[in-house]
Give the backbone structure.
Amino acid sequence: MKIMPNRMDRGFYQYQEEFEKKALEVLRSGWYVLGNEVKQFEEEFAAYVGSKYCVGLASGLDALWLAFRILGVGEGDEVLVQSNTYIASVMGITINGATPVFVEPDAFYGIDASAIEDKITDKTKAILVVHLYGQACEMDTICAIAKKNNLYLVEDCAQSHGACYNGQMTGTFGDVGCFSFYPSKNLGAFGDGGAITTDNAEVAEKMRIYRNYGSEKRYYNMVVGTNSRLDELQAGLLRVRLSHMQELTEEKIRIGERYDRELKNDAFALPKRREHANHVFHQYVIRTKQRDELIRHLDEKGIGTIIHYPIPPHLAQAYEYLGFKKGDYPVAEQFADEVLSIPMYNGMTEEEQTYVIEALNAFRL
Ligand SMILES: *Cc1c(COP(=O)(O)O)cnc(C)c1O
C-alpha cells in the first residue's frame, strides 16, 4: 500500500459536488476579488471562531506581518515567540523590523509559559503564541502575563482551526488571531488564503484598508498598504469546507485518538495532551531518537512522513544576521532532530490507518 503524509485530493472528493457547484457559481458571477463570497465567509468564520470580526487576506504570513504592522510593532521592538515554530511566524515579526526573542517550547510544543517572563525587557511589545500541530498553548497563564506586562498578544492559528483551550477557540484570546488557509491546513482552500480575527473594530477596519493598497475608497490611499486580498473563488470554496468543519475536525480527532490507543512501540513517543486543550491534529507528531531508521522503515512499506521542522528558525540561513548558534535553544534543536509527522488527513480510510499503525508497531532497530 502507498500512503502519503497528506492527501489533499481526498478533502476535495469528500464534498466534490458542493465544491464544483460553488466554483461554477463564482466563475459565472463575473466578480472575482473581494466580493460577496468574501464578505459571507468573513461573517461565517468570525461566528465559527467566536470573534466579532474577521478580515480575509491572501495568506497566513500576511495575517501575521499585517497584525504587527497595525499594532505598531516594528523597529526597536521585541516580540517573544517560541523557538520551535514554523519560520513564517518569525518572518511575520522581522518583516516589520522587529526583533524575535525566542522562548523554548514546553512538552506540548507550545511556548513554555513558565519561561516567558524571564525574557521580557523594556523593549518587549508583544507575545506571539503558535498553537503548533493543532494544540492550544497554555492560554490562562499567557493571557495573564500579557495583561500584567501590558503586552500585545497575537496568536498564530495557522495550524489550530477549531482548537480550543478551556472550551474557547484559539484566535479569540489575543488582540489578533492569524489564520492560514493554505490547502494542507485544517481549514484549507484550493490555493492560498488567510485571515485575521479580532474583537477590536479599529484593528479590523485598518486591516481592510491595509489589504487593499491602503485605501478604503478606491484610489484614495491613506497608508502604504499591500495587496493581500482574498479572492472570491477561494472564499466560496472555504465557505463550503467551513460548513463541514465540525465533522472534519471530529474525523481528525478520531484518527488521532486511534493512533493514541493503538500505537505501541518504545522506539518512539506519542504526542502529549495538554489539560483543558483539545488537540485537532493538524499534524500527528511522534518523537524518536531513531528517526532516520524509522523513516527508512516506513518508506520501505510505502508510507511517507514529514519533519515539521528540521531546522529551527534561529539556525535558518535567513536569520544568520541575528547571530545565533547551535546550542542556543537546545529544546527546539532536540525537537528538530527527533520529531516526525505520520500520515494524518481528512478522508484517510480505516484500512490506511491500520496499515500505518501496524508498520509503526513493527519497527525494531
Ligand atoms: C502555514 C503556516 C503559516 C503561514 O501561512 P501561509 O498561508 O503559508 O502564509 C504561519 N504559521 C504557521 C505555524 C503555519 O503553519
